[in-house]
Amino acid sequence: MTKELRIASLVPSITELLVALGLGPRLVARTGFCIHPQAALLNVPKVGGTKDVNMAKLRQLAPTHVIVNVDENRLATLAALREFVPHIIITHPQGPADNLGLLAQMETHFDAEPGVSERCAELAAELALALQRCADKSWPAQRVLYLIWREPWMTIARDTYIARMLVAVGWQSWPALNGGESGAARYPQLLGDEAWLAQIDRVLLSSEPYRFDASHLGQAQALCPQAKVQLVDGELLSWYGPRAAQGLDYLRDLAR
Questions:
Q1: Which of 80, 146, 168, 229 has the fewest CB atoms within 10 Å, measured from its CB?
Q2: Where is 246: in which H helix or E strand?
Q3: pLDDT of 73 strictly over 80
């Protein structure tokens, strides 16, 4: 292994990906939200959250590479990193197939590490098969409200990673709007009296960032009286990397 390689990941799903690629020993920093896989990260220092990075602590850890994400991290964070980090890797998967590009990106930067190229190829093959399993079936169209927060209710725009995951099984997210490359418009708030709520076929209550549970089912049902309401694993539907193939298979099971 290259002795100089010191990686900091400010993206929870990509921290998990780095471990899956065998790069866990090269991690010198993570956020407090980088929790998987737990055993591999116990001794990796935390440097705050995805939005409030402790720059002083991160600078002391002297990373050679820092991985950030357009959705997860702030532009101010990127500007601060440029003052002391030799290599900043900016990621922005916008749909499940984009994980293939993400794997290629990781391989480009870390292919000198033993086993990384082989593991990238394995994950890419798994994802390709999962994508094909979705494409092989003709899915009935459904209108879906995917909720990520309450008080106020918040959902997803159609150009988010989650919404494009849903499309793999014929589910179209509502409202019918795009949010742009970054910013709050990607996760719009609902008033709760929108006319289209009456036409929703399925409401999905995510386990993150708000941890919905069974106590919220009735409130969501009142929001969309005609819909099927269910709790879903938000990590499987929104995390990039090694969860992508599993997430697609999970969606296939939900849609049956």
A1: 80
A2: helix 244-255
A3: yes
Q: Domains of the chain by range and CATH?
A: 7-133 (3.40.50.1980), 142-255 (3.40.50.1980)
- Give residue-wise pLDDT tens across range 194-230: 999 999 999 999 999 999 999 999 999 999 999 999 9
Q: Which of 28, 34, 67, 32 is nearest to 48 (CA)?
A: 32
> From CA 101, how far away is CA 124, in angstroms rounded?
9
Are 156 and 186 in contact by the 8 Å Cβ rule? The answer is: yes
In degrees, rounded to 5, the angle at the alpha carbon of residue 139 between the alpha carbons of residues 252 and 192 is: 85
Contact residues for 85 (Cβ-Cβ < 8 A; gap 6+): 8, 63, 64, 65, 66
Task: Report the run of H or E that residue 6 belongs to, with start and end.
Answer: none
Radius of gyration of the chain (CA): 19
Per-residue model confidence (pLDDT) at position 246? 97
Q: Report pTM.
A: 0.93
How does pLDDT run across 86-118, given as a tens digit for each residue? 999 999 999 999 999 999 999 999 999 999 999
